[in-house]
# Entry
Amino acid sequence: MLLLKLFFWISLFIVFYSYIGYGIVLWIYLKIISLFKKKKAIPAEKAFEPEVTLIVATYNEEAFIRKKIENTFALNYPVDKLKLLFVADGSNDKTPDIIKEYPSITLLYKPEREGKIAAVNRAIPYVTTPYIIFSDANTLLNTDCVREIIKHYQNENIGAVAGEKKVVDASEKQNAAGAGEGLYWKYESFLKKLDAEFYTVVGAAGELFSVRTALYEHVPGNVLLDDFIISLRICQKGYKVMYEPRAFATEAPSMTMKDEQKRKIRISAGGFQSVMMLKDLLNIFKYGKLSFQYISHRVLRWCVCPFLLPLIFIFNILLYIHHAGIVYTALLAAQCLFYVAATTGWLMALRNTKIKALYVPYYFVFMNVALYLGLGRFLNKKQTVLWEKANRKV
# Structure
């Protein structure tokens, strides 16, 4: 009985720490540190406008690409210092033809489709600027995003900058997919802010992130989470990834939870792949703060918590059967209520309807189920880099 209780509480602690406790620990630490740090006077910003290349990898985006281009032209940065490089490899619609209408954009195109990272790798040799900004073709950037990102490179310790991802539904009625996805990214943005203040952001979102060109490292064509691998490898070299919430990419939510599931499974498969590729980062004696953040924020959530959740439930049932005490009865009741709410949320999501009280537990369970499915894809090597795009609201 004692051993069962020990396993139960250790498992419960790990899950709590991974999803909530880690953020609390960082928040408390940063608050304490701030009490002993003297506030430095903020110097007047110097004009810092180096040449930058914006790389956009696109595939069959004829319905959106013109809007993306117009948004790019509206960016508040000297036109002669912002180089535009679009890669449309494999597109078999009108995307390449539309891009050709704009002479100021360098277009790379070949009929073969090899995936996003292959397209990015192919674009890098064409870059002649010291900094690169990557942006997805189906996102819109805020006007000052380039300036907000580039200013951080005045600090030589900054090797990359992660922008903000915002999931916005222009319609009055947000669907279940949009509600869950939007809430998840708000929480992730909060953690990124804490991560950056503590040491470094642990991974960047492909919707908007930037690197020093000299630090870009060729990524194998089979990599699923290229943005994550690129940014963490830069951290391994001793540089930091800064977080800039005032530079953001706006993206419509997935049309349905089925579309969102496809995306999450692919990301989950990429998560397991990334942990294998970045196994050196598990050495906390070598990488210190970086390893602590990586393990706490990513490894536990991807590779440990999904397998602890059913064990916690089973342990709790066994403790209840053995009359371990009222605490275990209350915790079992809470778990049952949580999973009933998640199941009800799932049934509502099938109708593409959201109920605020239900989409939080549903999206939590949904993400963890996606990790199981993603692990299967990773182990069976069935997740291709040529993923099927999730349908999104326009």
